Protein 1
Amino acid sequence: MQLLDGKLLSQQIKQEIATQVTEIRSNGQKIPHLVAILVGTAGRSETYVASKMKSCEEVGMKSTLIRFDDSVTEAELLAKVEEVNQNPDMDGLIVQLPLPAHISADKVMETIHPSKDVDGFHPINIGRMAKGLPAYVSATPQGILEMLKRYEIETAGKHCVVVGRSQIVGLPMSILMQRNDYPGNCTVTLTHSRTKNLAEITRTADILIAALGKPEFITAEMVKEGAVVIDVGLEKVPDASKKSGFALKGDVKFDEVAPKAGFITPVPGGVGLMTICSLMQNTVKAARREVY
Ligand code: NAP
């Protein structure tokens, strides 16, 4: 078994981005600028946004955090998105999900201009990605592709099973793994909560991508010997042995699956760190107008 080390890769990628930003700076060009909008303080959104902002700082990029209370109206939020769309100094915009129930996340995503949509959630970016046109690709799937590429994992002709069909992970992941490119050219099965005999399907996976948000759901008996196992899940579970009182768990029961897997991502230290790198790579592309 070989560990797919997101910590190591993300350090390498951050170093590469820092070098690019230094070049941009020394050429007198505009420093890439990522803007994040955060609504409320609930859940883990605050921690996620903080680590995105910190990573930008580490690589020398500019970042701005715009905060709203939970009581913000949809109209106020959309007006702020429009303001960022119009601001030529701001290259990339992310609105941290989830949003309060009175705000339509779809409406917000559709209001972000596709050229600033570095999270790759706008329907135009999803459509362009599906057609194989230049697009911002959703950050987590892009991070997984980068990981497969850097570990030179063979994908052509393999059976890739994706568990979970969310708009931000499972669905784009399934599209990317079937495209005629590397990584890609897999035969893909996309599964979800209505899938029957899930274990029978996952056992046939050469590449198994778990993105369902159910801690330790994927057990050893669901995995084929030698499979590449990518664990996207990231959930807090109570753990009295930890000072914080909780542990972060993935969707895969790591201790029993790891000995059986060919390659596997740990949680934490796997996919999550790659996601932040994708976001910064997309912001550099946005500043350089490489996609639009
Ligand atoms: P989501 O929107 O809640 O989607 C979960 C998907 O899993 C749904 O399609 C659901 O099916 C499916 N599912 C649920 N229970 C299932 C079961 N028993 N068998 C098969 N499929 C099942 O989740 P998400 O936003 O994609 O996130 C998934 C996990 O990844 C979460 O733990 C999240 O925290 C994590 N995540 C991590 C990163 C990162 O950077 N590391 C980024 C994004 C998300 P239905 O469609 O039928 O309901």
Note: The two ends are 41 Å apart (CA to CA).
Protein 2
Amino acid sequence: MAAKRIGILGAMPEEINGIVSLLKGRSEVIKGMRTYYIGTINDIEVVVVFSRWGKVASATTVTHLIVEFGITELIFTGVAGAISKDLNIGDIVIANSLVQHDLDARPIMKQFEIPLLGKTILYPSEKLFNIVVSSTNELIKNDGLANLFSLSECHAFSLFNQKVVVGQIASGDQFISSSIEKEKLLKVIPNVLCVEMEGAAVAQVCYEYNIPFVIIRTISDSANENSIIDFKEFTAKIASKLGVIIVQKLVNNLKNDFYH
Ligand code: ADE
């Protein structure tokens, strides 16, 4: 079988540091203000990099991973703001579809249509998606992740009731921090679960280069007036550890899939 090389793109520097510490035989390449960490996790070749924030930055980083490092699949992890009322801080969302909520070339095209692709929604590769859903569910069963944190952190961030949810993620170059903005988004994208600033851009690049991808997001805030406080606390205390565990488990499961 052709060699596999997984690109691991993270939206939080803290998360990247933790994932980098898992690497064996590590080397680094610095290019375009980004540091690419190359090595293996459980004998699988990986390249780990901080995406930087926003659609342009993350699209540039994933293009570099594909063209310069020859990755064969892409895993993206980070945090997101909840739009759906059913989501709590700490829940894990795995994208089954992605849309760029700030892409609007009307009246030339439909709202959200990606120029020249003629698509408004992009989908992750089914096989990778299924592996991510099952490995993340395995992780959280029986409070599996709660024991990584103190009791007070578990209560503060609902980590005893954490759930994995599959659905649509919307991305745009905007940090959503008001109930009015949330309502506006829900009106035009009624199925959206959560919002962030990179996923759909990364999906577009992977689609254009035919690279299987999956986008995993942990809810850090409710995209409302409290979001900046919640976001800062969650990313500092929780997200960094969660991302590492999710990636470690996933790479182990992918190894079984690749080589057995
Ligand atoms: N990432 C995490 N929370 C977010 C929010 N509220 N808006 C956009 N991106 C986010």
Note: The radius of gyration is 17 Å.
